[in-house]
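Bumping my old thread because nobody answered last time. Still need a sequence for this structure:
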């Protein structure tokens, strides 16, 4: 037997002896344990008084003279610092250089003169109102810097970039420069319920009108927003908000894309998501089941608007007779954009008697569409155009008593109800190669929509 084994044997024997004693004499064991603890207490009590009393410890006072701060020098340093106050404003149609600067808290005749005379300076108030202006002025009201942001000049950049105009002071002179800068995007959530109208509900949730129009487009194949909207209908959406240097874009067209949405209409819920196929590079709205929401033809040549005259018999306001109305009239302000409902080639772009300025587009399958009474034509004969592309603007040319768009859909030369054609037209299918990626996108937006649903009447960034 080794030494280790002997030690283990002795330890086991001692443990067994202790267990036998504890079982046979429990009272004696308890007294022994209490006695041992009492000894520890007495020992501690005896040692504690040996510690020194804090009141008897020696004390020492230290006095140190600190240099007094030079207040005069500090005041001189502050006086040398240029204090700049920055204020944000949006330009108004009634603005002059002086009124804009005065509203921004600056009183600077030299800066106002620069905005009137310099080619770049004049652009601050040229064109549409609503440009974003940041003015930095010193304590006396002199302009030190101006940064102005507005839509990009090039049409192909207007959805992705903005123009930044920077004006800086150097002594008594000003220098200006412009640059095209990419938008930044911010994902936002929003939800609401219909009480009076779609736009009233989206206004309550601080959702831009352009996003509301996209939502109407997204579900236009499921819901007739002109006739089937009900009080109590609900919606939840996920969308992009564009920002310019971190500031929300306020001008028309400065809105991102609707990414996903759910709409409950008359007790039935519809869901859709924006999906862009990486292979083809084309995007469209799809239901969560992978069925495309996009048809070969849009239901309307205009973003969500009121219908003033449907496809039916009507009393003609100029000829004063009852006649079949072979189209749909959309009442809208002059200048409202008109879009092609499908891919095609422009057959007519010009003046046609009662139609006034008119555009006619030929589509596949011997189908054609007509857009009449336009105030402006934006396409040319023979031009190939895509679905959703602008063809002109609402007007009242030709035989029209007020600004509106007259729209017709013809199949083989026969007039058809455009809404019936749109709903019956063939859907754009999701490529099989994109289904795995599509399911990942759907899983992501479902979570976002669940959060948005809890935010009735609220729109917030993620």
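Sorry it took so long. Here it is:
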């Amino acid at each position: 037997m080794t030494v280790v084994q002997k030690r283990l044997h002795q330890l086991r024997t001692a443990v067994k002896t202790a267990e036998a004693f504890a079982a046979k004499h429990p009272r004696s064991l308890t007294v022994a344990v209490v006695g041992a603890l009492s000894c520890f207490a007495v020992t501690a009590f005896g040692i504690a008084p040996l510690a020194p009393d804090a009141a008897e410890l020696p004390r020492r006072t230290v006095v140190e003279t600190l240099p007094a701060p030079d207040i005069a020098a500090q005041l001189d340093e502050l006086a040398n610092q240029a204090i700049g106050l920055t204020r944000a404003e949006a330009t108004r149609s009634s603005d002059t250089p002086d009124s804009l600067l005065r509203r921004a808290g600056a009183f600077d005749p030299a800066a106002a003169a620069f905005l009137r005379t310099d080619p770049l300076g004049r652009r601050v108030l040229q064109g549409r109102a609503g440009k974003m202006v940041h003015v930095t002025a010193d304590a006396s009201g002199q302009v030190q810097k101006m940064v102005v942001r507005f839509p990009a000049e090039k049409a192909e950049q207007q959805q992705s970039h903005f123009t930044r105009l920077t004006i800086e002071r150097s002594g008594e002179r000003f220098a200006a420069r412009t640059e095209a800068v990419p938008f930044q995007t911010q994902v936002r959530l929003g939800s609401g319920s219909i009480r009076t109208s779609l736009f009233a509900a989206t206004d309550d949730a601080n959702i831009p009108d352009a996003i509301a129009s996209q939502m109407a487009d997204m579900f236009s194949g499921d819901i007739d927003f002109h006739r089937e909207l009900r009080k109590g209908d609900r919606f939840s959406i996920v969308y992009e908000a564009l920002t310019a240097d971190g500031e929300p874009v306020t001008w028309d067209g400065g809105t991102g894309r609707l990414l996903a949405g759910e709409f409950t209409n008359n007790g039935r819920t519809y869901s859709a998501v924006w999906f862009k196929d990486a292979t083809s590079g084309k995007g469209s709205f799809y239901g969560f089941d992978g069925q495309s929401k996009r048809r070969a033809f849009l239901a309307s040549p205009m973003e969500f608007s009121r219908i003033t005259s449907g496809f039916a018999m009507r009393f003609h306001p100029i000829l004063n007779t009852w006649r079949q109305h072979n189209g749909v009239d959309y009442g809208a302000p002059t200048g409202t954009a008109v879009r092609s409902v499908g891919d095609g080639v422009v057959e007519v772009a010009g003046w046609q008697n009662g139609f006034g300025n008119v555009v006619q587009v030929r589509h596949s399958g011997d189908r054609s569409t007509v857009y009449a009474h336009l105030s402006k034509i934006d396409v040319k004969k023979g031009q190939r155009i895509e679905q959703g592309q602008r063809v002109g603007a609402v007007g009242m040319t030709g035989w029209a008593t007020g600004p509106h768009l007259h729209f017709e859909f013809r199949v083989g030369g026969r007039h058809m109800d455009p809404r019936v054609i749109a709903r019956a037209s063939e859907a754009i299918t999701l490529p099989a190669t994109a289904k795995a990626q599509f399911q990942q996108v759907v899983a992501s937006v479902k979570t976002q929509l669940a959060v948005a649903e809890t935010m009735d009447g609220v729109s917030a960034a993620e």
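Residues 36-51, 306-325 have pLDDT under 50 and may be disordered. Let me know if any region looks off to you.
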